[in-house]
Specification:
single chain; mainly alpha; Herpes Virus-1; three-stranded antiparallel beta sheet
């Protein structure tokens, strides 16, 4: 399932890259919304929402690994017909008049680049999401402290935790380890709360800079991660798409040949292997369908809410005030069908946009060409502001 977007050459457009980059976020929103709706009747699904980052990262890890292994592209890039290519710059000393881009050669991805691509696509966004949640909690704690003050622990002077008939357990000895862990956690949260805004601003700034340079065709790297990995994203040709399909078939056949055991066990393992690949292929299509379904539902409910909140009947806006007739201007004729200049029935009626009065085209064109103003309001105008009317009243 591919979405072919227009353009020439192997270099994707800025809009293709932006769409491919925003697809995982839309996919996550669609999954979260769907699970949230299902959780209203299946309360156990709330556990999935509690560990939303982990479940989504695990899903994307499977999809990105499978996509990079079979198509040399990320999950979203493969859906748009894009492929990742390793960049090799070849030094050219023979002809200095050649373009700098002529020295760039593309090749297939190495195993190291595939692994690091998964890190940049899944691992780093996961850690950034966790840091963002920790920062939000720290910010809420600071806001609460500014409003209500710090919540100090009560009974700090009490050293009795549990009193039995013959035993007294000191609270400080039992809670020392927990207090140290809590204190360290608070320190880490405060450090993240202080450093995360700078980190977020830096990443967003680099992302914006690379996108602007890519839009201006000043670089071939759409993001800092692609630049660090030395990878260009290119359009896949028809031959490459056919090669990808054949490669997937060969990979599945090779995996079936590696299976050992009795014939019935080989058949069972082969069926499971084929089912796994089929599930992954259908999962990609299903997730994209979920994204479009979520966007449609979001538009539907938003439109319904707007219709419910908006008044049913809007009052018509008041008409603009009529133009004022100048004292030294030509007076208006009593009959609205007559031209103010020739006092005859209008022929080829034309209007001046600055005042809105209608004249014969020949009369008003000659007058405006000579005096550069409206004959009734004396407002300055030009012949470019004369408009022909095809229906006169």
């Amino acid at each position: 399932m591919l979405f072919q977007v227009g353009g020439q050459g192997t270099r994707p457009t800025f809009f293709e890259m932006a769409a491919a980059q925003q697809l995982p976020a839309s996919l996550r929103a669609a999954l979260t919304y769907s699970i949230g709706v299902l959780a209203l009747r299946r309360p156990f699904l709330h556990r999935v929402l509690d560990y939303e980052d982990e479940f989504f990262s695990l899903l994307m890890l499977v999809l990105e690994t499978h996509s990079l292994r079979t198509t040399d592209a990320s999950f979203s890039e493969s859906l748009y017909g894009l492929r990742r290519r390793a960049v090799k710059i070849k030094a050219m000393k023979d002809d200095a008049r050649l373009n700098p881009g002529d020295g760039i050669q593309h090749s297939g991805l190495e195993k190291r680049q595939r692994v690091l691509s998964v890190v940049f696509l899944v691992v780093l966004p996961y850690f950034k999401s966790k840091l963002h949640s920790i920062y939000n909690k720290e910010r809420e704690a600071r806001l609460q402290a500014s409003l209500w003050g710090h919540v100090d622990e009560r009974f700090d002077d009490a050293d009795i935790f549990d009193r039995g008939e013959d035993s007294v357990i000191p609270r400080g000895n039992l809670d020392m380890e927990a207090s140290v862990r809590t204190h360290l956690t608070k320190k880490i949260q405060k450090f993240i709360g202080a450093c995360y805004p700078l980190l977020h601003a830096s990443t967003e700034g680099f992302s914006f800079a690379y996108q602007m340079l890519y839009l201006l065709d000043a670089t071939g790297f759409y993001s800092l991660g692609l630049h660090a990995l030395g990878i260009h994203v290119c359009r896949a040709t028809g031959q490459e798409l056919m090669d990808t399909s054949s490669r997937i078939s060969k990979t599945r056949s090779r995996e079936r040949e590696r299976l050992r055991g009795p014939p019935w066990l080989k058949a069972l393992q082969g069926a499971l292997l084929s089912g796994t690949y089929t599930v992954l292929d259908y999962a990609q299509t299903g997730l994209i369908a979920a994204v479009f379904f979520f966007k449609m539902m979001e538009w539907w409910y938003q439109s319904a809410e707007e219709r419910m909140s908006a008044p049913t009947i809007y009052p018509p806006p008041p008409p603009p005030p009529p133009p004022q007739v100048a004292k030294e201007g030509i007076p208006l004729p009593p009959d609205r069908t007559l031209c103010p200049l020739c006092s005859q029935r209008r022929a080829n009626p034309s209007v001046i946009t600055v005042s809105g009065f209608v004249f014969c085209y020949a009369c008003i064109f000659k007058y405006v060409s000579q005096y550069k103003r409206c004959p009734i309001t004396l407002m300055p105008t030009t012949v470019d502001q004369i408009r022909r009317l095809f229906h006169d009243v």
